[in-house]
Amino acid sequence: TTQGSCYHWELLAQALMSMAHEGLVKEEKIDSFNAPYYAPCEEEIKQEIEKEGSFMIDRLEGFEVDWDGGLFDKSTKIGSISAGKQVAKTIRAVVESMLQSYFGEDMDMDGLFRRYAEVVGDHLSTNRTRYFNVVVSMIRKA
Protein backbone atom coordinates (compact mmCIF):
# COMPACT_ATOMS: atom_id res chain seq x y z
CA THR A 1 0.00 0.00 0.00
CA THR A 2 0.97 3.62 -0.28
CA GLN A 3 1.09 6.00 2.65
CA GLY A 4 -1.82 7.90 1.13
CA SER A 5 -4.02 4.81 1.02
CA CYS A 6 -5.12 5.24 4.62
CA TYR A 7 -4.44 8.96 5.14
CA HIS A 8 -8.13 9.68 4.55
CA TRP A 9 -8.70 8.43 8.13
CA GLU A 10 -6.38 11.15 9.46
CA LEU A 11 -8.24 13.80 7.48
CA LEU A 12 -11.58 12.47 8.70
CA ALA A 13 -10.26 12.72 12.27
CA GLN A 14 -9.36 16.37 11.61
CA ALA A 15 -12.91 17.06 10.45
CA LEU A 16 -14.32 15.31 13.53
CA MET A 17 -11.98 17.24 15.85
CA SER A 18 -13.08 20.55 14.32
CA MET A 19 -16.62 19.58 15.32
CA ALA A 20 -15.42 18.72 18.83
CA HIS A 21 -13.75 22.13 19.17
CA GLU A 22 -17.11 23.72 18.39
CA GLY A 23 -18.89 21.49 20.93
CA LEU A 24 -20.84 19.57 18.28
CA VAL A 25 -19.42 16.18 19.33
CA LYS A 26 -17.58 15.06 22.45
CA GLU A 27 -13.82 14.67 22.03
CA GLU A 28 -13.88 11.60 24.31
CA LYS A 29 -16.28 9.94 21.89
CA ILE A 30 -13.88 10.61 19.01
CA ASP A 31 -10.93 9.33 21.05
CA SER A 32 -12.69 6.03 21.75
CA PHE A 33 -13.76 5.47 18.14
CA ASN A 34 -11.84 2.64 16.49
CA ALA A 35 -12.01 1.88 12.80
CA PRO A 36 -9.67 -1.03 12.16
CA TYR A 37 -8.15 -0.77 8.73
CA TYR A 38 -5.92 -3.33 7.12
CA ALA A 39 -4.68 -3.24 3.56
CA PRO A 40 -3.02 -6.50 2.51
CA CYS A 41 -0.15 -6.59 0.07
CA GLU A 42 -0.36 -8.56 -3.18
CA GLU A 43 1.53 -11.52 -1.70
CA GLU A 44 -0.93 -11.83 1.21
CA ILE A 45 -3.87 -11.83 -1.18
CA LYS A 46 -2.21 -14.51 -3.28
CA GLN A 47 -1.51 -16.67 -0.21
CA GLU A 48 -5.13 -16.44 1.00
CA ILE A 49 -6.51 -17.43 -2.39
CA GLU A 50 -4.12 -20.36 -2.63
CA LYS A 51 -4.86 -21.42 0.96
CA GLU A 52 -8.61 -21.42 0.35
CA GLY A 53 -8.01 -23.70 -2.64
CA SER A 54 -11.12 -23.20 -4.79
CA PHE A 55 -9.54 -20.85 -7.34
CA MET A 56 -6.46 -20.45 -9.50
CA ILE A 57 -5.13 -16.95 -9.97
CA ASP A 58 -5.36 -16.00 -13.61
CA ARG A 59 -3.97 -12.51 -13.11
CA LEU A 60 -3.09 -10.34 -10.12
CA GLU A 61 -2.07 -6.72 -10.62
CA GLY A 62 -1.61 -3.68 -8.47
CA PHE A 63 -2.01 -0.09 -9.61
CA GLU A 64 -2.30 3.37 -8.14
CA VAL A 65 -5.07 5.86 -8.72
CA ASP A 66 -5.36 9.48 -7.58
CA TRP A 67 -7.81 10.00 -4.73
CA ASP A 68 -9.83 12.36 -6.88
CA GLY A 69 -9.74 10.15 -9.97
CA GLY A 70 -7.69 12.76 -11.82
CA LEU A 71 -10.32 15.53 -11.57
CA PHE A 72 -8.06 18.10 -9.92
CA ASP A 73 -5.60 20.02 -12.11
CA LYS A 74 -2.54 20.05 -9.87
CA SER A 75 -0.63 22.41 -12.17
CA THR A 76 -3.15 25.25 -11.73
CA LYS A 77 -4.48 24.25 -8.29
CA ILE A 78 -7.99 24.78 -9.68
CA GLY A 79 -10.68 22.42 -8.53
CA SER A 80 -9.48 21.48 -5.04
CA ILE A 81 -12.97 22.11 -3.65
CA SER A 82 -14.59 19.89 -6.29
CA ALA A 83 -11.93 17.22 -5.77
CA GLY A 84 -12.46 17.38 -2.00
CA LYS A 85 -16.21 16.94 -2.46
CA GLN A 86 -15.69 13.96 -4.79
CA VAL A 87 -13.38 12.22 -2.33
CA ALA A 88 -15.74 13.00 0.56
CA LYS A 89 -18.66 11.41 -1.31
CA THR A 90 -16.62 8.27 -1.93
CA ILE A 91 -15.49 7.93 1.69
CA ARG A 92 -18.97 8.80 2.96
CA ALA A 93 -20.42 5.87 1.00
CA VAL A 94 -18.03 3.56 2.85
CA VAL A 95 -18.04 4.88 6.42
CA GLU A 96 -21.27 6.80 7.04
CA SER A 97 -23.23 3.85 8.43
CA MET A 98 -20.35 2.95 10.77
CA LEU A 99 -20.06 6.54 12.00
CA GLN A 100 -23.83 6.91 12.39
CA SER A 101 -23.99 3.69 14.38
CA TYR A 102 -21.21 4.79 16.71
CA PHE A 103 -21.94 8.50 17.13
CA GLY A 104 -25.73 8.20 17.03
CA GLU A 105 -28.57 9.87 15.21
CA ASP A 106 -27.63 13.31 16.56
CA MET A 107 -24.41 13.36 14.53
CA ASP A 108 -24.68 15.87 11.67
CA MET A 109 -23.33 13.73 8.83
CA ASP A 110 -23.89 16.43 6.22
CA GLY A 111 -21.89 18.87 8.34
CA LEU A 112 -19.14 16.33 8.99
CA PHE A 113 -18.66 15.46 5.34
CA ARG A 114 -18.86 19.12 4.29
CA ARG A 115 -15.93 19.78 6.67
CA TYR A 116 -14.19 16.65 5.46
CA ALA A 117 -14.50 17.82 1.83
CA GLU A 118 -12.80 21.10 2.80
CA VAL A 119 -9.98 19.32 4.66
CA VAL A 120 -9.44 16.94 1.73
CA GLY A 121 -9.53 19.82 -0.77
CA ASP A 122 -6.86 21.65 1.22
CA HIS A 123 -4.77 18.49 1.37
CA LEU A 124 -5.10 17.82 -2.36
CA SER A 125 -4.13 21.39 -3.23
CA THR A 126 -0.60 20.69 -1.96
CA ASN A 127 -0.28 16.88 -2.12
CA ARG A 128 -0.68 14.17 -4.71
CA THR A 129 -2.34 11.38 -2.81
CA ARG A 130 -3.07 7.98 -4.33
CA TYR A 131 -4.79 4.73 -3.46
CA PHE A 132 -3.14 1.44 -4.26
CA ASN A 133 -5.62 -1.05 -5.73
CA VAL A 134 -5.23 -4.75 -6.39
CA VAL A 135 -7.26 -6.45 -9.11
CA VAL A 136 -7.48 -10.23 -9.15
CA SER A 137 -8.85 -12.41 -11.92
CA MET A 138 -9.50 -15.98 -10.74
CA ILE A 139 -10.65 -19.23 -12.32
CA ARG A 140 -12.70 -21.66 -10.29
CA LYS A 141 -10.99 -25.04 -10.03
CA ALA A 142 -12.96 -28.03 -11.30
Automatic annotation (TrEMBL):
**What Gene3D superfamilies does the record point to?**
Methyltransferase, alpha-helical capping domain
Task: Identify the keywords attached in UniProt to this record, alphabetized.
Answer: Magnesium, Metal-binding, Methyltransferase, Transferase
UniProt cross-references to SUPFAM superfamilies, sorted A to Z: S-adenosyl-L-methionine-dependent methyltransferases
Report the InterPro entries cross-referenced here: MeTrfase_7, MeTrfase_capping, SAM-dependent_MTases_sf
Asked if the keyword DNA repair belongs to this entry, the reply reads: no
Keyword Transferase (UniProt): yes
Q: Which GO terms describe its biological process?
A: methylation
What GO terms are given for molecular function? metal ion binding; methyltransferase activity
Q: Which PANTHER family match?
A: S-ADENOSYL-L-METHIONINE:CARBOXYL METHYLTRANSFERASE FAMILY PROTEIN
Q: What is this protein called?
A: Jasmonate O-methyltransferase-like protein
